[in-house]
Structures are given as structure tokens and as C-alpha cells.
Amino acid sequence: MVDEFQPAADENDRASNAEYIHNQDSLERVRALAKPESHPDFDGRHCVECAEVIPGPRLALGKVRCVICQQRLEGSKR
Ligand SMILES: [Zn+2]
Fold first, then answer.
1. Does the pTM exceed 0.90?
2. Is residue 43 predicted with pLDDT exceeding 70?
3. Does residue 21 register a pLDDT over 80?
4. Residues, CB within 5 angstroms of ligand 1 (ion)
5. CA distances in angstroms from 72 to 9, 30, 54, 77, listed in the order given
6. Residue 49: its pLDDT value, please?
7. 11: part of which helix (H) or strand (E)?
8. In sequence order, what E strands does 25-68 have?
9. Residue-range domain boundaries for the chain
10. Distance CA 3, CA 36 (A)
11. If you measure from the C-alpha of residue 65 to the centroid of ligand 1, how many angstroms do you get, rounded to a whole number?
12. How far apart are CA 22 and CA 19, in angstroms?
């Protein structure tokens, strides 16, 4: 059956692929702007304070602490 061939699916693949690359690109830009934090104990995924997994959006910003530890840190700094 020739009907089973769907060129539209291929187009969708291309579109999402291009979108993915674009997202990666802007992610890099956001990262550069936000000045990623660094920490000798940071493994790229877990909070350096409590070892809780850091949510993706926070990781994208270069954060090395979870929200709770970040708030605690900023609260104690004052
Ligand atoms: Zn934490």
C-alpha cells in the first residue's frame, strides 16, 4: 500500500529537530547570560548541599543548588 507512506511525518521530524537545535542554541545563550555557578562537589545533576536532584530548568541556568538550599543560602547571607 502506497498510502502507508506519509511524507508529513518526515516533515514533522525535521521541524522538531530544527526546533530542538534552536532550543539548545538559546539555552546556551541563557546559560552564558546567567553566569552558571560552579562548585567542586557539583556532579552536574544533584544539589551540592542536600544531594537532591535539581530540576532541569534550574540546571539549565547553571544552578548547583536546589530551590530550598538556594533560599536558605540567600536567607542566611542577607
Ligand atoms: Zn538542596
1. no
2. yes
3. no
4. 47, 49-50, 52, 66, 69
5. 48, 25, 15, 9
6. 96
7. helix 7-34
8. none
9. 7-36, 37-78
10. 50
11. 5
12. 5
Task: Map residue 53 onto helix, strand or coil.
Answer: strand
Distance 16 CA to ligand 1 centre (A): 34
Between residues 20 and 60, the one the model is more confident about: 60
37 or 3, greater pLDDT: 37
How many angstroms does the Cα of residue 8 sit away from the middle of ligand 1? 45
Q: pLDDT at position 13, please?
A: 75
**Rounded Cα gap, residues 44 and 52, in angstroms:** 12
As given in the structure block, the three cell numbers for residue 23 are 532550543
Ligand 1 centre to CA of 62 (Å) is 14
Q: What distance separates the 2 farthest-apart alpha carbons in the chain?
A: 70
